[in-house]
Amino acid sequence: MDEKDRLLLTLLRRDARRSVVALARDLGLSRTATQDRLAKLQASGAIAGFTVVEGSAAARESAYLTIKFASGYRCPQVVPMLKRIPAIEMIHSVTGPVDLIVRVAAETVAGIEAARAAIAEVPGIAEVSTHVVLERHLG
Fold first, then answer.
1. What is the mean pLDDT of residues 61-82?
2. For labeling, which of 43, 120, 130, 134 is most exposed (least CB within 10 Å)?
3. pTM given for the model
């Protein structure tokens, strides 16, 4: 993957509905070359699929939760239970003093709190800290 491919992925993350012509213009490539790159990124798995973001998603509240596991617990024991909580949109295992970073979304802040409470009840979770998104600058 070269710099043009990375830029193409960044442009698609920002607006996946952009036309191939607009993408090509921003990349400084022809439409055909851009289409070829898109096809290669799909074939390689760099673009694994397409998704729908509901129209009301921009108006939803969201928060990032940092999670620490109880002693003896690891991702294989905890993550499957977290995946069952509908408000969870993202789960990432990370390095450092916390074990997971989770993004939740709900219609209201009360919905965020309900998701946080459900997460805190999962066996193996020792600590949950909530970080509410105040403003989105990108993504």
1. 96
2. 134
3. 0.63
